[in-house]
Design a protein that fits this description.
Elements: H1 3-45, H2 53-60, H3 62-65, H4 71-87, H5 94-116, H6 122-127, H7 133-153, H8 180-191
Helix pairs in contact: 1-2, 1-5, 4-5
Length: about 190
């Protein structure tokens, strides 16, 4: 058996194994890219609703899906760290905090878009959302209801009550007597 024959037998025997390994490697790459795209798409879709559970979950998956070993993904992680630090900031005035939060979210989505192959500019990301005012109003009303209910349950708020249409009986008027049917029903209940 010559060297050529040995190489031919090895290549015939190993080529299916090599093909399977290459296929698995490509599948892993596609799956990894798919997870990154999913995080990006959720964040883009919920960027106007930053407290939605889907948005928060996607933010928390950034560290899991993006790698500091790739420059474009490292940029995502750097901006994410700035955004995360800002979200924990408690000493800023609310309006200034929210403006900075939106700017950092736009930066994050822009960097993430570049990393996954989308070419959105920052203006598109910031202004390209549809958020009906009714959603904001409903969210605000729900928050107010939760707050008031908790205050009531914790004893921090009183439940105002009043009696309506309670007119005193005129002098000399007899009190209301039960009707015959209601008297019979009360007697039956008492006997049972």
């Amino acid at each position: 058996m010559t060297l050529t024959d040995v190489l031919m037998v090895l290549s015939t025997a190993l080529s299916p194994l090599i093909a399977v390994q290459v296929t698995r490697w490509l599948d892993d790459l596609n799956e990894e890219r798919g997870r990154k795209l999913q995080v990006f798409k959720i964040l883009m879709a919920t960027r106007a609703y930053s407290v939605s559970p889907q948005h928060v979950e996607a933010l928390n998956r950034i560290d899991l899906e993006f790698s500091p070993k790739r420059p474009a993904e490292k940029a995502v992680l750097d901006v994410w760290q700035q955004y995360l630090d800002h979200l924990g900031q408690t000493k800023m005035e609310a309006q200034a905090w929210n403006i900075r939060r939106v700017d950092l979210l736009v930066e994050l989505l822009h960097a993430m878009g570049k990393a996954v192959g989308y070419d959105f500019n920052k203006t598109q990301i910031k202004n390209g959302t549809y958020s009906p005012t009714a959603h904001g109003r409903l969210e605000s009303e729900q928050e107010r209801l939760r707050t008031l209910t908790l205050e009531l349950l914790e004893g921090k708020r009183l439940l105002p009550t009043f009696v309506a249409n309670l007119n005193p009986l005129p002098e000399g008027a007899a009190s209301v007597k039960p009707t015959e049917g209601s008297q019979q029903a009360a007697t039956k209940r008492a006997e049972s």
